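Whether sequence alone determines local backbone shape is best considered at the level of individual chains. The sequence in question and its structure tokens are set out directly beneath this paragraph.

***
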Amino acid sequence: MSYRIHVVETQATFTVEAGETVLDGALRAGVCLAHECTFGGCGTCRVQVVEGAVAYEDFPMALTEEEAATGAALACQARPTADLVLSVARGAEADIPAQRVTAVVREVGWLGPDVTHLRMELPEDIALQYAPGQYMKILLEDGTHRSFSMASAPQGNAVDFHVRRIAGGRFTATRLPTLQPGDRLEVEVPHGSFSLRKEDYRPLLMVATGTGLAPIKSMLESLMDDPDCPPVSLYWGARSAADLYLHNEIAAWGERLYDFQYVPVLSRAEDDWQGRRGHVQQAVSQDHGDLSEHAIYLCGSPNMIRDARQTFVALGAQSPFIYADSFTFQHA
């Protein structure tokens, strides 16, 4: 048995065979659907089921039961049980085409115990364009790639990254430690649908863990000194104070952002820590009884994003205004 899939925005049609996912069928037919991790952890392939129904072998981490009840689905895991009409939200990935270029390493240094600051520059004849929140693919010699979010707002042809070193990582544990200024890397940029939506006109709630701060930093830098900047609350979760690698810098952002609140939260805090303890999503729920008016950006571990979605929806957050980017580290 096969099912017919129709995409509203592009008018694309394709078939999905029994046992295939929506993404399987789209890729086989040459139909472009945004995707990244392919195992339900990142949420990049989120679509809206307008007509029809889907099922899952294992319910994906990047989707809540409440969201699924409203028709949200993840194409990489959803298996049709009927013909489908899908709506695909138009995001940054559709607006700015990716280009493959050679980037030059300009700076490499430590930000924290296991986080490297990497700064690269694209050739002068390339117009570097990306939406704050998007990521770059670093292409490796074996044909694979590693994905890292831009940690700086678009400005010129230089871009910053916060790269967490992963034990045994093909790039972070081998290539990254040997990089020197002047080295060249093949890259592809931009990618990803996680980006700042200024058109929402809502107070911003930014929630990050670890280097999930990187795309959030890119977004907030793009809002600095903007007279239309909405109120911003940033909750950053880490294990210890040493992992808050931009703590002092963030504390000064309030001078350039409107009504800025910064709340660091430690899950394994030392005895002398005077700030918040526990999980970052719990701190948000303690401070905000009603999230129905917020635009919410989540970036970090899949577990945090899953729990935060469930917690925040229970506090009135509206699913169309919850944007997430899950760092799964499968490409470390």
